[in-house]
Amino acid sequence: MSKKILTIQDISCYGSCSTTVALSILPSFGIETVILPSAILSTHTSGFKNFTVLDLTLEMPKIVNHWISENIKFDAIYTGYIGDVRQFDLILKIKNELLKENGIFFCDPAMADYGKLYPALNNDIVNGMKKIAKESDFLIPNLTEASFLTDTPYKDNFTDDEIEKIANKLLDMGAKKIIISGVKNEKKLGARYYDKKESFEYFQGKREKSYHGTGDIFSSVVLAYILNGYDMKTTLKKSTEFVVKSIDNTIGDETHNYAPKFEEILTNWQK
Ligand code: PXL
Asked: Who is most buried in 207, 216, 236, 237, counting CB within 10 A?
């Protein structure tokens, strides 16, 4: 049976991230993708100045109440960047009212990278993300976000043991399955999976450049593979390869420093 999901994140009109990325990737894997925009921005907030923001906090409950009255339900709810702290309680209500029994609550706590919160965010957003993260079936933070969620001071060179401690804290908070991206050493970069029983990783060679929005591409591809029934090892491998290929496709194009160019990779990808 084909799958129908709801994604809740901003629309950054220019900048290839969040909702626009989810809407490009998930339907191309055969997944019907419904959106609940949390805000409309002229661009994403990393690397652009004077971006505009239309907050949609007051519109979101009206949309949700209409869907409840229509008895609409989803196989997964996928949350990303949330710019207003009032939206976290609504997200929990959406999970309770609109997610099918045995549906997947998939949380990408998109709020930080390289040791820092994104420019428009603050500690209230971190606390809101903690509230939804602990309810998640899949939690998919990068290492910076995992540090914020567990109140661990960020370091550029966490050891494997330290990363495992962070993952265990996230599992103890209540998240059922964790994928931490942005795990690296001198030569390799990749992601690690953790649940209460097992942990594994998939690495590729480290690239000389990194891009904002990479996490959003990774999350959408991971969710697509999970919904299409792939096991977690294959999901991690294929999703990491997709992201690295997208980065390789962008390196050298100095006009495109704001996001990876994933579209050509997606077109030719064996799904
Ligand atoms: O890629 C994450 C993201 C999503 N949405 C907005 C952002 C960012 C990262 O900077 O600014 C608005």
From this structure: 216
Pocket of ligand 1 (CB under 6 A): 10, 12, 17-18, 41, 44-46, 81, 110, 118, 212-213, 216
Tell me what percent of the residues of the chain surpass a pLDDT of 90: 96
Pocket-testing residue among 24, 42, 45, 125, ligand 1, by greatest number of atoms within 8 A of Cβ = 45
Of 34, 35, 70, 33, the C-alpha closest to 56 is 35
Show the CA angle centred on residue 245, arms to residues 243 and 246, nearest 5°: 65
| CA 184 to centroid of ligand 1, rounded, Å | 22
* Distance in angstroms (rounded) separating the CA atoms of residues 19 and 183: 25
Q: Given the CA of residue 47, which atom of ligand 1 is nearest to it?
A: 10
- Count Cβ atoms within 10 A of the Cβ of residue 13 and give its class: 0-12 exposed, 13-18 middle, 19 or more buried: middle
Residue 115 to residues 146, 151, 153: CA-CA distances in angstroms? 10, 12, 9
The C-alpha atoms of residue 100 and residue 40 are separated, in whole angstroms, by 28
The stretches of 200-256 forming alpha helices (DSSP H) are 214-227, 232-248
Q: 42 C-alpha vs ligand 1 centroid, how far in Å? A: 11
End-to-end CA gap in the chain: 17
Q: For residues 180, 135, 94 and 140, what is the CA-based torsion angle, rounded to 10 degrees?
A: 0
DSSP label at residue 110 = -
235-239 long-range contacts, CB within 8 A, separation 24+: 236/179, 236/191, 236/193, 236/200, 236/201, 236/202, 237/202, 239/191
Q: Whose CA is nearest to atom 6 of ligand 1?
A: 44
Can you tell me which atom of ligand 1 is nearest the CA of 215? Answer: 1
